[in-house]
Amino acid sequence: MQKIFISSVQKELADERAAIRDYVRGDALLRRFFEVFLFEDLPASDRRADKVYLEEVERCDVYVGIFANEYSYEDHEGLSPTEREFEHATIRGKPRLVFVKGTDDKLRWFLSTARRERQYVLTESTPIKEALAHLNVLHDGKPSHAAILLFGNQPQRFLITSEVKCLHFHGTEVQKPIPSYQTYKGTVFDLVDQAVDFVMSKIARAVGTRAAGPQALVTYELPRDAVAEAIVNAVVHRDYASNASVQVMLFADRLEVWNPGELPPSLTPELLRKPHSSIPRNPLIAEPMFLAHYIEKAGTGTLDMISLCRKAGLPEPDFRQNIGQWVVTFWRDWLADEFVSGLELNERQTKAMVTVRRDRSITNAVYRSITGTSRPTAKRDLEDLVNKGVLVPIGSGRGARYDVARKWLTNGSNGSRGGRFGNGS
Q1: 3-class DSSP assignment, residue 156
Q2: For the structural domain made of 2-100, what CATH number should be given?
């Protein structure tokens, strides 16, 4: 009679362990040649559990490891009982069969999606090794870092900083305590989906009528496709050798996506506003993301962001390099209460801001009618709002007006207000 030893984290995989035992016992052929060892089937004893485990590994003929999300407790050497059992079986030369629960679920989803979205040649039933080899994410027959990031369980166990940190601040500056701070883990697909959901759940949205169709149209203050493009670019093109993580920071006036890494030497922030070639930093990650329709491989990502913001009536996004970090900034309707309250406006200016927010423009005459002040005083107040970056003067004479500034200006150059976290903090 051959003995099968099943190793796993008991509290997570009790049903799976019992299912294997019951299957072997219930099969007329298998039960003639195999018996299954489960620790929970042993009677109570005063012997140490870890000693019993290792003794049973020595007695077994086949070692079966079943692993999923949980990691058991560690001993003084930092090893779990499951690791001890596996090493013991390896040293004793036992045949080892290892199954990772759900490992191929992500791959099956990818193959199905890629075939539907891009007419990918492989089908959902393609064997795992063949599918990974076709994507060039095997190295000497073993999964590469790209394979782990794309399809692995808990990729952050191997690439710690591959996570995405999402932070939401009510004001326009980094300030503790942070109202909402989430660290997302998982595959690159999971990271993008979770980070995009974080942003979209915290910005304003408007629900229209059903006049144009059976469903009411929902619009967000920032275009979802532009937000997704920035986040997926950060995840796909980041420097995975960096100790920093991707950070997504939502402020009252803007959204910033920080990406560890730098532009290729042939590209500049200015060139990203023009048609340019695609130069992925991580082509082995970019290709599956393209096949799953998360990105296009045409160098159009930044142009799409610009176009989407224009269509939404928003300022164009900013692109800048910042000491080893690539930063994309989207500008919200930045005249939020938190922003305006920090401008130290007088009572007249505060009153006029209601009209400025609504009409996005104001004239000297309208300012006087709202505040009841004189022309010179109105001119001084409006020029003060220009100096504070809120308004921009347009035209001269009787037709002169003051429009809302397209974005916040710092010392006359593009940039955002206030401090920031260093990425990876």
Answers
A1: helix
A2: 3.40.50.450
